[in-house]
Amino acid sequence: MKIRSVTPSNRKKTFEIRTATKTLTFPFSEADPTPTARDPIAGLSVNADAGRQAFTYVLHSGRTGTVHVEQVLEYNQDPTHIRELLLYRLTLEAQKRIAETPLSKREIVRRLGTSSEQLYRLLDQTNYRKSVDRVLALLYVLNCQVDLVVRTKSA
């Protein structure tokens, strides 16, 4: 996700980040170094070197900080980001299990009822267009049990 613009809100003590599809906020207190009334933001820009996926700010004291869009999405608990993180973790586990299984890839494809190209798409951790249920089906074929645990977030 690319950042289009970012502006500070000293009254709210937040950064306001605009992307192509949404506007998100990120509190100063989550940034390092933290902007304060005694050391305010002197400069702020979207970081082109990071592919517009981060922004950099300079404090009056000269200290600089960078915030990546992943931090902003995680702070805002963006559902798309959470889904992608879940897919990423499940895919890495599937890759690990594929390496350990005695089953051939041809047999895995047969049991999934799909093509070898689809299997490779399922195993690609950068592919976020796949569905969670297909990765779960793959893990099931690999003789895995996946349990969903819901718990209160720790601070």
Description:
The protein is of the alpha+beta class and 155 residues long. The chain has two domains: 3-75; 79-141. The chain has five helices and six strands, in the order E-E-E-E-E-E-H-H-H-H-H. The strands form two sheets. It has a three-stranded antiparallel sheet with strand order 1-2-3, with helices on one face. A three-stranded antiparallel sheet has the order 4-5-6. Helix 2 (79-100) runs parallel beside helix 5. The longest helix is centred in the middle third of the chain and has 22 residues, at 79-100.
Mean pLDDT comes to 94
Radius of gyration: 21 Å
Order of helices and strands: EEEEEEHHHHH
Unreliable residue runs: none
What is the structural class? alpha+beta
- Write down the overall geometry: elongated
- How many independent structural domains? 2
Give the assembly state of these chains. single chain
In order across it, which strands form the biggest sheet?
Answer: 1-2-3
In percent, how helical is the residue content? Answer: 25-40%
> How many strands, which pairing sense, and closed or not: the largest β-sheet?
3 strands, antiparallel
The share of residues in extended strands comes to: 15-25%
Whole-Å distance between the termini? 26 Å
Q: Summary?
A:
This protein is α+β, with helices and mostly antiparallel strands and 155 residues long.
Please specify the SSE layout and strand pairing.
Layout: E1 3-9, E2 14-19, E3 23-27, E4 41-46, E5 54-59, E6 64-68, H1 69-75, H2 79-100, H3 105-112, H4 116-122, H5 132-141
Antiparallel strand pairs: 1-2, 2-3, 4-5, 5-6
Helix pairs in contact: 2-5
